[in-house]
Amino acid sequence: MYKKRILEKTLHDYLDTFKAVALVGPKFCGKTTLAEQFSKSGIYLNPLNLSDFKTMLQLNRNEFLSTPYPKLIDEWQLIPEVWDVIRHEVDHLNGRGLFILTGSSAANFDETAHSGAGRIGRLTLRTMSLFESGISSGDISLSGLFEGERVPYQKCNVTVSDYATWIIKGGWPESVHDTEQQSMRRMQSYLDALIKEDINKITSKRYNENRMRKILESLARYTASETSNKRIIEDLVSIDTSTSENTLADYLDVLNKLYIVDDLKSWNPNLRSKTVIRSTPARFFVDPSIGAGVLKMTSQKLLKDFETFGLFFESLVIRDLRVYAESIDGEVFRYKDRYGLEIDAIIQRHDGNWGAIEVKMGSHLFDEAAGKLIRFSQKIDHEKMGKPSFLAIVSATDHAYQRADGVMVIPIGMLKD
Q1: CATH number, span 7-124
Q2: How confident is the model at residue 305 (pLDDT cuts 50, 70, 90)?
């Protein structure tokens, strides 16, 4: 059964704006199913029918591009020339929202002759947030926080054990009704396909399975941290002493083009004083279940190792914040300066409004987190950047409320877009 996605509204707006929309994201995140909610006809490319559709495209292009619109072309990157064909076709057609192109790899964007700028809008579908999965109550709205709403004292019914389970299960539409064990089997199959097949479909190069698996393991151990490439190379020494930084960069680029890794960039605001801001991105997978699957974690293992649990909980929160922020014209960043002040998430909307968030599982860390948020806000040049719309601690605790210092405490199991 179809699960309503937050990106629906944005996709609708894009179809009203552009002549075609490219909907991208990791495999099995629900791109095709979402596109089918809007399309009126479709072509579904796969390795078994590629020859037939290539022939149709060459000899009977009108049939390939025929109405009714919007027309879905699923996994368009299997025939890379489709991009330029569509770009050319829409130049000669009236109307908007004529085609939806879905794809699980960004590699073929490099091969297209034209970017499609102004004609083809690009949208990224992420895995489902807790709200989309039906876990978060959605009692607190991120857009509401930007509009000045404050958080009343209320109880959250999502438990720490629930968060552990949903880190393992992830936000994959097919896994929503799975048991944890079934979700783990799906993820192992997903990882095997990624390592044995998908990485070698990106370029003409061949990638070493053992090296890629070791890189994934290293990324999983350092999730939510600013680990350098040099540190990852040190992890590879046990299996390979010949990996260079260029080689590692190549492997990471493949994972990026498959929408597997999703590092968090640094925020560079105007500050009151001259402070050097660190620019190293923080390491994240597009979904916490990928890292958990690589390390063969279970919810019970997480509940016995709260240091690891905390890192994966942060990964869960960042995934959800990205889904919610992007739906309200926002982007999520991270902040760290040379003095060691680090803020887990900064959400800045396109209108310039911004808010700052610290991710803390337990209440014993709230005073420290609130102090950091307040000190951070005081560093910002409010005349140029404006005051923060909110300062908040996103937690795994069971109550939402506003502290006396103005910092809000929000369980992630109560948040929505």
Answers
A1: 3.40.50.300
A2: very high
